[in-house]
């Protein structure tokens, strides 16, 4: 847990006052508590996590359940209105901005996006359904992504159209 928090702190420019950093601290704590085997010891940590998560959602407006799988180096650039489904998977070195939704396409159906490494997700983007986003992808502001995106691409528009990236990485 502490190694991941140290990485998150570095990703947020070593600034303890970045809101995205604190969202990730609460997320990492929530994941860590699952490793406590005796139920009697885990219960107070679970209670503390639920209180911190509640306040995080209220004050920072970021819904990031500890059931989601988040890689190293996630940067939450701007907080507010970010929703990540509990079964979503995000790779390493991804960037999220405000208003991003990563989740289910329809209520009552399982299957959230699997997002690769070094994916840059613009403000207001919606990534929905059981889809795969490749590595080194840029998703434009307000894009609605409903299909797989291959590595090294850009997705823009509603619904998102996919274009190859010019000049390399996102």
In short:
Keywords: Acyltransferase, Repeat, Transferase. The chain has 170 residues and is α/β, with parallel strands linked by helices.
Structure description:
One of its GO terms (cellular component) is cytoplasm. Pfam families: Hexapep (PF00132). Keywords: Acyltransferase, Repeat, Transferase. The strands form 4 sheets. Strands 1-4-7-10-13 form a 5-stranded parallel sheet. Strands 2-5-8-11 form a 4-stranded parallel sheet, with no helix packed on it. The protein has helices at residues 2-11, 19-33, 39-60, and strands spanning 62-63, 69-70, 75-76, 82-84, 89-90, 95-96, 101-103, 114-115, 120-121, 126-128, 132-133, 138-139, 144-145, 153-156, 161-164. The two termini are 29 Å apart. Helices cover 28% and strands 22% of the residues. Strand 14 (153-156) and strand 15 (161-164) form a beta hairpin. The relative contact order is 0.10. With 170 residues, it is of the alpha/beta class. It is built from 3 helices and 15 strands. It has a single domain, classed as UDP N-Acetylglucosamine Acyltransferase, domain 1, CATH 2.160.10.10. The model has no long low-confidence stretch (mean pLDDT 90).
